[in-house]
Amino acid sequence: MLGPTYRAKKTKCRRCGTAASRSSESSSIRNRCSGSAVKSCSKISSPFKSRLTPVTIREYVDGRGNVFRAPRLRASRGPVSTGVLGIIPARLCSTRLPNKPLYPILGRPLIEWVWRRVERIAVLDLVVVATDSEEIAEVCRAFGAPVEMTSTAHPSGTDRVAEVAAREEYRDFAIIANIQSDEPLLEEIQLSAAVRLVSDEGWEVGTCATPVLDEYARKDPSVVKVVRARNGQALYFSRSQIPYKQDGKPTREEMEQERFLRHIGIYTFTRDALGAWAKLAPSPLEGLEGLEQLRPLEAGLRIGVAVVESADSGVDTPADVVRLEKHLVNLGDSQPFTTTNSK
Question: Helix, strand or coil for residue 266?
């Protein structure tokens, strides 16, 4: 049997009857209301927050002295460090889509769509943006996102994430999630699956993938593919067609059997694993493929890959922008999500 696969199925809240979504592979996930029903069922919590009790509202101060407030959490059992910190690394040096985090999507910067999407995901206790760009920082502060300024010398987003996670004000968090700044349609089931790999299944690093069912995507170098072992461990990531079928085009059945997977750009880490990753020098394979996840893989770090039923792709090219805008208009999301910053 291959590693974990997570599929969303509809269920109902046990208290109010509101439709909710849960993973069919994890009986530990409680039914949870969505949307406006959350407040009416506040006692139904995320499975990852079930051990956490807000004991005080703590003020966090970013690198510019801006103050934002969030609950400081205490574990009812086990170690104090049990929270999940989400960090969105962002920079302006994209080659395929210049100034990508600030690229306008229906009149709003891409990074605002990403932050507003993930800020409302229940598995995360706090979400901050990490950047070396004052321009990005100014834009993020304008729409309410906490920002941490970082070094300009980082070779990858994970190095930027590690710098922020090591700061004193974030050391209460045991699990850190690296959320790519070009994934505006990230779903809770994807992030929850990656967190569960680390929190429940003992992996040092967790990430996600979804079956590649499109022949064009399978050949597209902007779509990162991953091959994993039977236990779910990542064997290799590549922009090339992996696995390569020597006798021609894969059949639909072969694709649906999860042999051909597209990587989803989210990572979760234990604090020790993130520190170990950041201490590694850039590797030869990382340089060849332009994929930072090959650095820890080449060094022997264990990366678990959960397969989720489906996922929208990120934004890498102008064509992706057109596709995303059409998708958002069809969904009725012509403006960024309304959030209350209530965490």
Answer: strand
